């Protein structure tokens, strides 16, 4: 199976932002699944691509991501 990464997501000010962040992650190269949690300000992402690509995709959509582990 592909590796899973947990991201901290900054800038989600209402629950609708979850959809925007999820679309950004799913559009990133190699992403298989993306679950975004508004309450925890996190995302769990399974991808064949690099975690750096995930961070760039989120940042380019107007939010801020950092890798937790
Ligand atoms: Mo809520 Mo997020 O109105 O882009 S959807 S702040």
UniProtKB/TrEMBL annotation:
Q: Which residues form the signal peptide?
A: none
**Which residues belong to any copy of the HMA domain?**
3-66
Q: Where in the cell is it found?
A: Cell membrane
- Entry similarity comment: Belongs to the cation transport ATPase (P-type) (TC 3.A.3) family. Type IB subfamily.
Q: What is this protein called?
A: Copper-exporting P-type ATPase
Which residues of the entire protein appear here: the answer is 105 to 173 of 859
């Amino acid at each position: 199976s592909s590796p899973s990464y947990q991201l901290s997501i900054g800038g989600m000010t209402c629950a609708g932002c979850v959809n925007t962040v999820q679309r950004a992650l799913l559009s990133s190269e190699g992403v298989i699944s993306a679950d975004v949690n508004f309450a925890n300000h996190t995302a769990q992402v399974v991808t064949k691509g690099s975690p750096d690509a995930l961070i760039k995709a989120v940042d380019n959509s107007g939010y801020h991501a950092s890798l937790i582990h």
